[in-house]
Amino acid sequence: MDPVLLVASIMVSATPILLAAIGEMVVEKAGVLNLGVEGMMITGAVIGFAAAVSSGSPVIGFLAAALGAAVLSLSFGFLTQYLLSNQVATGLGLTLVGLGLSALVGASFEGVRAPGLGKLWIPGLAEIPMIGPMFFRHDFMVYVSLLLVAAVWAFLKYTRAGLILRAVGEDHESAHALGYKVVRVRMAAIFFGGACAGLGGAYVSLVRVPQWTEGMTAGAGWIALAIVVFASWRPLGVLIGAYLFGGVTVLQLNLQAAGANVPVELLSMSPYLITILVLVIISARGVHGAPGSLGRSFHASA
Amino acid sequence: MKRRTLLASAALGLALAGAPAFAQDVPKIGFVYVGPVNDGGWSQHHHEAAVKMKEHFGDAIEMIEQESVPEGADAERVLTQMALSGADLIFTTSFGYMDPTINVAAKFPDVKFEHATGYKTAENVSAYSARFYEGRAITGYLAGAMTKSNKIGYIGSFPIPEVIRGINSSFLHAKKANPDVEMSVVWLSTWFDPAKEADATQALLDQGVDVVLAHTDSTAPLSVLEKAGAYGFGQAADMYDYAPEPRLSSIIDEWAPYYIDRVQAVIDGTWESHNSWQGIGDGMVGIGEITGPVPEDVKATAEQMKADIASGAYHPFTGPINKQDGSAWLAEGEVADDGVLAGMDFYVEGLTAEIPN
To answer: Does B62 touch chain A (CB under 8 A)?
Structure first.
């Protein structure tokens, strides 16, 4: 088995869940639990595909996917932040709406082929033997996803706005007492999360498969939700989690293709076992890492 | 309105809605699909055959369809619902519906069922399937002839006899074209998951495979093969959108004549439970046009093979064939019997992987 090709495949396979997970992490850091990631991803997949086919440009496809999924997520934001609906139920509803809506919009795009996305060789670095083909010969979205993780990390750790977002997620009463606009911050976070999920979905339909078929994200959104928990709400953890989950999928397929007799089922469930293990460890340590106000509705008069 | 009056009027409404259906007495034919009806493969082909059947009979029958029904407990619920809504004949079009079909059929002795690709039958349950392995012999031969790396790949769904027959038949005939050929098998535990099918195709390509045979339902493998400049085949449907390359040929399921035949039997009152297994000769398995850079002599051999299988002059499982462990299965000139084929759970000699449990 060629490690160079394996690592390159893992990076492609992990990118959609990395994008969706980093967006969802920001949403949850703001104290909102949006279970509609799968619905936003599939919406992004169909809108991105449709826009890329119509315009002939994958870049426009990605932009449209981010915008479309973000707008859809605002419906979740409006229901949960202004009408104070239950976040779990609304999130699940968002997934169902997304799956149905995408099937409707995508019906006329079945069997159509998407414009290809070229590889972007990083000058200099791409020429390094081994390392170059592994890490520096991908399409631009792979780099965008990595830059996004770095940007989110820096934003939460070093900026004032990041601090406010974390404060809103930890204790919305106190943040409100300090004069921060809790609902507005949360709406912005939800919008960002939707855009990221849309990008992740478009990556599946434009690069990884590349075609549109109904239900094609096939549970990637739920994996993204698991990754956020696995990461204990840390950007670096999200990165590791996404590459671990993506890596195991690719690895088990490659091991099979190479003819190794491995228990495929065990390997497939290993990331979930690790997630449970991580949860046990962090709860045994007493620090669970979840934002204090996660999933709780906020109303100023309360 | 009080709840009781509401219920009463609902019941009345149901009775009224049900009455005309009985009065018309038009046979009601149901179809259940495992994927969406626009998957480009298996389910779409069943659906199109169903539509052809409906066009053939026009208003003489009524048709109901249900798509994307998961195999398992959900299937039983859907089938029960269909039987309750007055269906006379229900086609259940995926292997995993076998036990649900048998269970529901036992509860509705007056409703007739037709289950695709299984092996269990009952008084009111028929099994019907196509001899896809006949088609796989031809695509396998083409794969063996077209590989440059001597490595071909097979994307399997579930390790059931239907798929194992396909793997064995493909491999035996790839070897006829190219004695050095090796075959990698990847199992996905799904019939339809484009992302996973694409990843599996990529994994096979990463291992040096340059021709891939898929036993899953979407066109995702062909999409990936096209990007990589490798070859593949249409599965269940012609998938001619991907011709001339990467699609070299295809195995096409022709269900419509069978559906028309069976519905006619219900109308005539001559329907009886049977176990039907038809191949290229009966027209249930079609071979798509051979396209792409296939050399003339390979094409001629493949077409001759198709003609011989259709006429019965050649059986894809003709000895000498050994099992994977080297023990003899078929002696020189011996032909596999249907019983062994129907329950096939072993690889032939030369395949290196193991069948998962």
So the answer is: no
